[in-house]
Amino acid sequence: MYRRIMTTGDPQAEHTSASEPTTGVALETERVGDESKARAHPSKWWLFAVVIVIAAALRFFNLDHPAEVYFDETYYANDAVVYLEGPEAFRHNLDELYGGESRESETIPVSGVPGEISWVHPPLGKWIIATGISTFGKNPWGWRSMSALFGVGSVAATYLLALVLWRRHSWAFLAGLLIAIDGLAIVESRVAMLDGFVSTFIVVTFLFIACEKRRMQKAAALAWAEYDAHPTCSEVEAALEYPEAGYEEAEVAYEPARMEWRWLWVSKWRLLTGISLGAAIATKWTGIWAIFIAGGLFGVWSITTRTPGTSIVGRLLSSTPSLILCLLLMPACIYLASYAGWFISNPHGSILTEPSGTTEHFFKMQSDTMRYHRSLNASHPYQSTAGSWPLMSRPIAYWYEEGPEGGRGHILAVGNPGVWWPFLVVVPLVLAYALVRRDWRDGLILAGYFGLYLPWFANPRTSFFYYMTPVVPFMALALVSAARRAPEALRPAAAIVVGGLAVVGCAFFYPIWTGIEIPPNMWNNLMLFQSWI
Fold this sequence. Notes:
By secondary structure, the protein is mostly helical. It has one domain (2-105, 120-344, 387-532). Helix content is 57%, strand content 6%. It has helices at 35-39, 42-60, 73-85, 94-97, 124-136, 140-166, 169-180, 183-188, 195-227, 233-240, 256-259, 268-281, 289-304, 312-338, 340-344, 355-375, 417-436, 440-453, 472-484, 491-514, 520-526; strands spanning 2-7, 26-28, 248-253, 262-263, 266-267, 396-402, 408-413. The strands form three sheets. The protein has a three-stranded antiparallel sheet with strand order 1-3-2. Strands 4-5 form a two-stranded antiparallel ribbon. A two-stranded antiparallel ribbon has the order 6-7. Residues 1-40, 229-235 and 241-264 have low confidence and may be disordered.
C-alpha cells in the first residue's frame, strides 16, 4: 500500500494533502519504493566502476617492485609461508630466497606456530597473505596481491558508505576517489602488512553500521505510520534526510517486509557488523576500538530513535541483547575461529585430544601478546607520536635505493597532502554540524576518525605513522561532507577543489609511494620537510 508525496528537500517547502497523513514513514527515492534499485541504475553505477578502475590501477601497477622482501614483509610474508608449509619453511625463508639474510635467530619461542615471528598478531591477516602466495607463488606478486585487492575493497566500501550516507553517486564518487589516491592508503595496499586489511574490515563495519541506522529510521517510521500520529511531511523529511535539492517523486511504503530482515530478532546489518568487527580484531588487535565505537553509536541511536509507546530505558534495554550478541559474542567467535589451525595442531597437541592443555596455552599466548604490546618501548628511527600524525611530520621510509645513474627509488609511507591538510581545515566545520545540527552522518564520520585515532595517545608502546591507515577513509568522508555544506550554487566548485587538490597531490607524490626511480632534484623537491628523509 503506497501513498505518493512530493519532496523538495526544503522542510519549509514541503506540501502534501491534508487528508493524507504522512506520519514518520519511510520515503523511498524511486517510484518502485525500493532504494536499492535506485542505486543499481546503470546510468549511475558507472561512477563506481571508474573509481574502482582508478584504485586498481594505482595499486596493481608494477606491484612486484621492489623484487625483494622489504620493511615488515619480513615478518608477515615469511609467516604466511610458515602457515602454508610448516615451521621448516622458515629455515629457508623469503629473505634468503631474495638475497637477504635469514631471520631464524629472531624467532621467539612461545605457544604459537613454531617458526612464526609475528606471533603477537592474530592469524587472519597472515592467512589472507598466504592465500595470495598459494595462488601466485612465493614471489612479490604473490605476497602483495591480497593487500592490493583489499585496498581496492576499501575504496569500494568507502564509496558504498558515502552512498548510504548521502544517497548521491556524485558524492560517493568523490569519497571513493579521495581514498583511491591517498598516499598512505596506496602504500599499505602495495606491501604485505596487516594494517590495510584492518582498514578494509573497519570501513566495511561502518558501512553496515550506517545501513543499520537507515534500517532503524525506516522501522521507526513504519511504527509511527501504524500509530497514525499524523506528523507533517516536513517532519518526515527532516527525520529521514531524503533528497536535499530538487523535486523528486517519492513513495510511502507500508510493507514491513521492505523495511528489514531479521534473524532471531536481530537485524542483518548488526549481524554483519559483528562479523566484520571480528575479522578486524582477528587481523590485528587495533580493530578492538571499532567495537567501542559501534557500541556507542548503536546505543545512542537506540535512545534517540523514538517509537510510539516506548521509553528511553525501554529502547536501550530492548537493544541490549542484540548488541551483546553482535558486538561481543560474534567478534569473539570470529577471533577464535581464526586460530582454528592452531587449535587443531599446535606444539601442545590438539583441542580434540588435549583440550585442557591447548586451552591453557592459548590463553597464555594471549597473555604474552598483551604483555608484549604493553611493554614495547624499543627505539626506532621512524617512530613518532600520535600528536604528529595529522601533520604527517614523521612518515616512514619503507624502502630506498639509489640507481646506478643517480636516480632514487623511494617508498615513503606518507599521506596525500591534498587530502590530509585540507581535512585539518574542514574538520571543525564537520564537528560543528555534528553538534549544532545533530547530523548523525557527521557524527558517524567523526566517531570513526577520533575513535580510531585518539586511543593512540594513551598507548605507551612505540608507535608509527602507518597506524593511521584505518582513519584515512573517514578523512575522505569528512572532506565530502564539508563540500556538501557549501551553498548550492558553489557545491560543484567545492567538489572540484576538494578532488582537484587530491589529484594534484597524487600526480606529484605517486613516484615516492611506489618506488619509481626519479631524478635526485625531483626527489629533493618531494621531501617537503627534513623529517621526511
